[in-house]
């Protein structure tokens, strides 16, 4: 790569050409304050917090977008620059609530941290502020306009990464807000509830809908049997909320903490991930034998399923009818396990701890309810919410000794662990499908072709002399691209995995806030979480879902066989085309 020489704060540096001033400064250890900037999104230079002085230029320049050039003399920390940044930030804060101590983003708010870094110790301006309006219509996401600083990150991640474009700027000037089409509510929009907008929001303008107080009330209800289940990706991320480096597997600490919170049983969603593989691998083999449409597409991701119903309804018949591991677990808990402990389903409350805010929406889908219409999953809380509950209860998470998940729904294989990583569902399904079809062990069960953080991955495996072609899409933007390929060439693939979030569940919309960071796209952080899951798979004595003795026992005692009558009743569902209510209403009004 070509290099140039430039002067930064009166020191000469040799810097790669083609960088912006901000990138150049980052490369030498000088971090310029920023707010609207995100390294994976387009640059708008909207907030102007990142301004610097460049000798020979009349005005300050936005370092996030201005390219560095040969001989350029840049000053990042002059009195004039510091004063200008402070003035800009004061004007932003003038239109922001003064409730930091009571805010869900307290201590992990980028605006708050920026104010501290820049040195704001008082608010100098008072005036009319944006009218308070909170859209809490969705079961997953809350939009608080009063806390929005109009940085536009949410708009960009929705349109540029996820390719959904559910929200955008509306109105002008002081009345500008970020809302769905027709200024409607999130619940009536095309929003897939993936939560990536929550991840990139620097304040608390966008947050998950909080159910922690409901769960605390449940834990004090002596009439209920309280059961928790924990998703794979939660265990390798929750430690970050307690200052533990990314990639540490804290599953035993989570199980211990949940018991201390008051749960009667703590089960592992990895058990039901194994169960999902038993059903999904069997379904794939049926389709390969002509009983169903190909390519078969996975259905574990709640955000992806909502996107499918809205944007790709012509592919609904391609989607696996399997419920997600969360919903399978909840169904089994209120049937098989309820019978084992002699309790009625109505006496049991299921709480799922997930990395995903879309799971809150999934829990309320009527298709997934029990026979009497009550929810199979009573509440869903995110990794972030569980971390807060643990802190609120005074539990010393970092120093817990830890304990195992409870039997009989706590035993899982390595195949289930990698559900949390993009490509993991595919890899786990191939391990079982191959061995069910060939009756022979798969020599190399590490399917590296579907691993990694690339947006779209392809691979193939031979089963009984036939090449089975597979593909994996990570993030909804990549899912749209992959499905366009499928529509043009329906016979190109046999099996497709799609996860709504970039990187898969480890980059889910409910993962911890770790201060100012680049999630959900920070490759290093996502990589550390993925490594921990792959390591857990590697160390597990059982790495194939169909070899899980607890799964085998569940079929022997209750389900009968994969794709059998009871399996279809309790483990499978259906999907149908859905139109956003708001768009239909507006169309009719016209």
Largest sheet features = 5 strands, mixed
Task: Figure out the total of helices.
Answer: 20
Query: Which fold name is given in CATH as the topology of the largest domain?
Result: Rossmann fold
The figure for the number of domains is: 3
Structural class: alpha/beta
Low-confidence spans: pLDDT under 50, at least 5 residues? 515-519, 582-590
Overall mean pLDDT stands at: 92
The total count of strands amounts to: 18
Q: Judging by the overall fold, what is the CATH architecture of the largest domain?
A: 3-Layer(aba) Sandwich
Question: How helical, in percent, are the residues?
Answer: 25-40%
- Taking all Cα atoms into account, the compactness measure Rg is 25 Å
Inertia-based shape? globular
The CATH class of the largest domain is identified as: Alpha Beta
- Strand portion, in percent? 5-15%
Summarize the structure.
This protein has 590 residues and is an alpha/beta fold. It has helices spanning 21-27, 79-94, 110-118, 153-161, 196-200, 212-219, 232-235, 251-261, 269-288, 302-311, 325-340, 358-363, 383-392, 414-417, 424-438, 476-488, 523-539, 549-559, 565-571, 581-589, and strands at residues 3-8, 11-16, 51-54, 61-62, 73-75, 134-135, 141-144, 167-170, 177-180, 206-208, 225-230, 265-268, 296-297, 348-354, 379-382, 456-463, 466-474, 495-499.
What does this structure look like?
The protein is of the alpha/beta class. The protein has three domains: 3-93, Roll (Ubiquitin-like (UB roll)), CATH 3.10.20.740; 130-208, 2-Layer Sandwich (Alpha-Beta Plaits); 213-571, Rossmann fold (3-Layer(aba) Sandwich). The chain is built from 20 helices and 18 strands. A five-stranded mixed sheet has the order 2-1-5-3-4, with helices on both faces. A hairpin with a 6-residue loop joins strand 8 and strand 9 (177-180). Mean pLDDT is 92; it is low at 515-519 and 582-590.
